[in-house]
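During the second year of the project, the team shifted from modelling isolated chains to modelling whole assemblies. The rationale, set out in the original proposal, was that interfaces cannot be judged from single-chain predictions alone. As a representative example for this report, we include one of the complexes processed in the last quarter. Its constituent sequences, exactly as entered into the pipeline, are reproduced here:
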Amino acid sequence: MELNSVEGKPIYVQIAEWLEEEILRGHIKEHEKIYSQYQLAEMFNINPATAAKGINILADQGILYKKRGLGMFLSPEAKEKIRDKRKNHTLKRLVEEVVVEARLLGVSEAELLSMIRDAGKVFDEHEGIEGG
Amino acid sequence: MSLTDISLTEPSLFDTVKKQFLYKLKGRLGLFLAMMGVQIMGLLFSLSGASSHGMGDNFLYVSVNEFSSDLIIWFTFFWIFVVAVLITTKDYQNIDFTFVANRLSSHLSNVGFLITAAVIGGVTAMLSGTLLRIVIYFIRGRYMLSENFITAPEVVLTGIAVTILYLLLISALGYFCGVLVQLSKVFIVILPALYIGTVDFLARELPVIVKVYNFIIGENSLALLAVKVLITTALIYACSCVLANRLEVR
Amino acid sequence: MDVISCQELTKTFGRVRALNNITFTIGQNRITGLIGPNGAGKTTLLKIIAGFLRASSGEVRVFSEDPFNNLKVAANMIFIDDQMRFPTSLTLSEILASAAAFYENWDMELARRLFDYFSLDPEQYHHKLSKGMKSTFNMIIGLAARCPLTIFDEPTTGMDAGVRKDYYRALLRDYLQKPRTIIISSHLLNEIEDILEDIFLLSGGEKRLQTPVSDLKEFAVALRGRREVIDKLTAGQEIYYQKSVGKDHSYVVIRRDAAEGLLKKAGRDGLEVFPVKADDLCVYLTSRKRGGIDSVFDRY
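Output from the structure prediction step:
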């Protein structure tokens, strides 16, 4: 994943979102140790303090918990927490933006739905995510 | 474990001076090559003879050529003065402060270097004098008035000692001049003007220097000379250090 | 422990005041970017910290001591810029060997490996290197010396983009392995932004801002919309940058917290909100005129 320094989102937010995606895709299991700030710093070519800030966002939301002297681990309900959060905020916001754009272009709801279905097909062919 | 957690290095002045001194010896070998070049030049110029005259009548003509190795020594004096001034300039200073240095360690290692240069210069200058005799012997014919052709060892050693002492003094003066120039560029004009202005004074003193240099004076004077020179040299270097202690670098 | 601390530091050269009343501290083991336009006083500040120059007034403390003429500071600090000088008669490998004698933490293995990677010839002479190669060599010395305080002053002059990327990558990786206090001065923020922890903005000899980089991005925000709306909204506010867009639109940069308050009160009213790039923000905060260069050409 390429970090986008130019885009609006601060780097540490992008780190937090990337970790969330890793969790959603099942690459990190419950109670497993997640990447340390130093590993993330090396992986994304950023300062470890920035990586730590991203990790702390997730810790503050209860998605990660800290074991003294050992590092950050994935909380048991993390996946659900992330799903809820992103559905009610991120996805909602994206949907709102799509709707605004569709209205602006005069695209009907039916057309929009079929575009969504097409996009879904392409995605499933290429990636496919486990879990429903 | 971070580098700041490990306790910080606290180097002693002596250690730093030693390291800088060795670094300078290694890095300034070129200056010694220049010394050799300068002495060879002195030797070559001396081959033409310091003075010559001839006399004769109808039956016999005698021509006398005098040679002197003084020129080599004067060239060496000039060399060490230039070196001493050179090492006070910005580029040489920057070399010190690229690594670990403070102003005092920089001066002390320069002094060490100049002392080494004086010793090497003194020895090689005298030996060049000996070389000159040998070259002349082979080039200019075997007819030499040669009571003193082979110089007695004590004379050579005394000559070396005296030359070294004068080199020490001259290098200290050169360093001091260099420091003055670093303090203010105006000295580039003032110092040569001072020198020319006092050339009269020097001319009066010259016979004394020449006498000492001709080893007419015995050992006693050597000791006295050594004491005088060493104290003066130390004082001059001390002044240089104090004056240059607040200079900004790099 | 604060590695560096300055109180009301001022430096004048003759009649020119290069640094004016600067107060700040730099903590342990952080990478700080010293950012500012040319002539801002960055090099002067760094050289005072390094003990090369003397402060005209005020106090400077490095490792709790005055850095001027200080062997302890000199032995634990290295200053890398394009004015580093080495004896012309020494080869590069001889210079490395000399450096090893001066620095306790010297890592010869690292130096050799970086040497090989950047294809430097150990038998080459320093003054014969191209500008870019010199900078690379100086960087290798800087990293391998492993000094607790490492200062880089515009270290990438003359380097091409690929080498610069590698340079900063090497810096980050060595910092991760052996954390130390690092200051990098540059006028190209976008290159080093990601590896910085803190940013110190200097302009006209004065400290403008010292803050974590992540906070910098959130510091200000840009608004774009009809000029009357913008003017009304931002009346009385500190404006960091303003320019006109199209015929009657305006683009303005103000503090984020101020913007949030104003938008709450007055509503969006067709205004668009944009983030501001960190390097643009630095330029705005340190620029001469509010409208930037465009103000010279705009006629409104």
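Chain B touches chain C at residues 2-4, 6, 8-13, 16, 19, 22-24, 26-30, 91, 94-95, 97-105, 245-246, 248-250 (CB under 8 Å). Confidence is low (pLDDT under 50) at residues 212-219 of chain B.
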